[in-house]
Amino acid sequence: MKIEQPDFPIASEEFAGRLVFVTGGTKGAGEAMVRRFAAGGATVITTARQAPEDPDFPASVITGNLATAEGAAKVAAQITGTFGVPSILVQNLGGSDSPGGGFAALTDDMWMKELNLNLLAAVRLDRAFVPAMLQRRSGVVIHISSIQRLLPLHESTTAYAAAKAALTTYSKALSKEVGPKGVRVTAVSPGWINTENTAVFLQRLAESAGITTQQAQQNVMAALGGIPLGRPAWPWEVAELVAFLASDRAASIQGTEYVIDGGTVPTI
């Protein structure tokens, strides 16, 4: 699914002169973030297991595995040596492939895999880049968490939800430590996002149940307890929130978490 730009004007020089590093930025909301920062004039770097085939992809892609300490250190060293220290760091990498079956189905290896991908990758990269941000007394770090930290699905997302909850808590702690020294830290927690993977997932559900993809989408929304907005978010909508938080327009925003879920979380 092609990531479209929004149909409203974007200030083409908003991020001019900024070096932006978005982890996991070749698909879905991560790709939308890359394109949004590039449209705003930034020099953008991202990571992936494999480089995208699009010759016009608007970012330098570094291949590597951020879910290991060695992989994160290698990517950080390559970025610092080639580009310098990012002025904006968006920790978007995340996901889950743990099996269903509840807590008893999760082995230690599965737990560590979820924690490495959804928590420790961000911790390690912050440790690599934030000290230099502190030295120059400027920088922005945005951690992409998830509403799963508030609405875990015990059948299939316990480890992922726990890792994202830890990421949000860590983000708050980091903001309190580095905020007085010029580095802003915030978190963004999306709900269901309408990505290419979502489309594949809905198609699979529809085929197995003998229903339309629209009906499958309604069934998923019902399982989430409903989305009052009536639909998942589009990737560019999440990217626009991230761009705002990274911009000078959000200069006084620090240590907070922004939920973008169409109203899925039923509490304040």
Brief rundown of the structure:
By secondary structure, this protein is an alpha/beta fold. Helices cover 42% and strands 13% of the residues. It has 2 domains: 19-193 and 233-260, Rossmann fold (3-Layer(aba) Sandwich); 196-231.
General description of the model:
- It holds the Pfam family adh_short_C2.
- Keywords: Oxidoreductase.
- Belongs to the short-chain dehydrogenases/reductases (SDR) family.
- The protein has helices at residues 28-39, 69-82, 108-136, 158-178, 196-209, 213-223, 235-246, and strands at 19-22, 43-48, 60-63, 88-91, 139-144, 183-190, 257-260.
- It has 2 domains: 19-193 and 233-260, NAD(P)-binding Rossmann-like Domain (Rossmann fold, 3-Layer(aba) Sandwich); 196-231.
- It starts with 18 loop residues before the first strand and ends in an 8-residue tail after the last strand.
- Strand 4, helix 3 and strand 5 form a beta-alpha-beta unit.
- It is an alpha/beta fold and 268 residues long.
- Helix content is 42%, strand content 13%.
- The chain has 7 helices and 7 strands; from the N terminus they run E-H-E-E-H-E-H-E-H-E-H-H-H-E.
- The model has no long low-confidence stretch (mean pLDDT 92).
- A 7-stranded parallel beta sheet has the order 3-2-1-4-5-6-7, sandwiched between helices.
